[in-house]
Amino acid sequence: xxxxxxxxxxxxxxxxxxxxxxxxxxxxxxxxxxxxxxxxxxxxxxxxxxxxxxxxxxxxxxxxxxxxxxxxxxxxxxxxxxxxxxxxxxxxxxxxxxxxxxxxxxxxxxxxxxxxxxxxxxxxxxxxxxxxxxxxxxxxxxxxxxxxxxxxxxxxxxxxxxxxxxxxxxxxxxxxxxxxxxxxxxxxxxxxxxxxxxxxxxxxxxxxxxxxxxxxxxxxxxxxxxxxxxxxxxxxxxxxxxxxxxxxxxxxxxxxxxxxxxxxxxxxxxxxxxxxxxxxxxxxxxxxxxxxxxxxxxxxxxxxxxxxxxxxxxxxxxxxxxxxxxxxxxxxxxxxxxxxxxxxxxxxxxxxxxxxxxxxxxxxxx
Length: 366
Description:
ANK repeats lie at residues 105-137, 138-170, 204-236, 269-301. Pfam families: Ank_2, SOCS_box. The chain has 19 helices and two strands. By secondary structure, it is mostly helical. The longest helix has 13 residues, at 330-342. It has helices at residues 41-52, 54-60, 88-99, 109-116, 119-127, 142-149, 152-160, 175-182, 185-193, 208-215, 218-226, 241-247, 251-259, 273-279, 283-291, 306-309, 315-325, 330-342, 357-363, and strands spanning 4-7, 13-16. Strands 1-2 form a two-stranded antiparallel sheet. It has four domains: 4-54, no CATH class; 107-197, Alpha Horseshoe (Serine Threonine Protein Phosphatase 5, Tetratricopeptide repeat); 232-324, Ankyrin repeat-containing domain (Serine Threonine Protein Phosphatase 5, Tetratricopeptide repeat, Alpha Horseshoe), CATH 1.25.40; 328-366, Elongin C, Chain C, domain 1 (Orthogonal Bundle). It is 45% helix and 2% strand.
């Protein structure tokens, strides 16, 4: 027996300990004992709010459904079906879709094992029949996850199980791109040895070399270039890899690209790598670019030279002014022109020429 507060159609309140139903509005006030008594102003106020909260009272006093009970549809004649998917797990999954970079609702246990580097669990799942190329709604494979987290052993196990090393997501991201994003040199070498493409199928798709230059992973840059990647490979909205390296102030990556034959004057549209380095006031980048033949007289889309963009009083301003006063020496000019005549594809074979070691080191910038 529970004590309940009840109100008639006139808003009069009374307490009852019976399990009878609440008053309906069709109930006459003659059955209400409160009508014969004088209500205080406080009781009138309470009765008013109680009469206005009739729907809330019904909701509060509805019986709770046990956790394991089947859900019944509100539609007439509907049969009890499977439990609703609106539980905490469902809400958590939907929240993951909204907040994550991709869709996390359909990630398989194989994706989780690859992402977390659990090699034993990964092999167990593969032995149980999970497909190595299972994809999410965004076409993310377990190999993508392993490469993004830098787990080379998991990536090797997936490739041995038949994973596609050139699988691309809906955004064109490949496992090789993810390896460069995480800075995993071992993963880059593994994918290249397994037949991974070094260039994307479309020029607007993400480039592994550009990502390595953006992240400053000089070892990944060197690994890609050693497998024949074009150091001047252009992406329409990013420009050249050297431009990306200068934009993010990674002088080590810039030096490797220039040493492998990248053009010091190819950037994005009319904006040269020297323009990008000067905007960042990076004197080391500017010195490397000038050493490999960057032109200080090139103009960008705003018809400005690099010296016009240098911060006043900065190191790059002083360096460019000093270079204008004393240009390159004959030794530097000869080296730049000889390297251009040899060609980028043959620069790696300089040590095979019958030249004195001193001359070979001179041409290799060592």
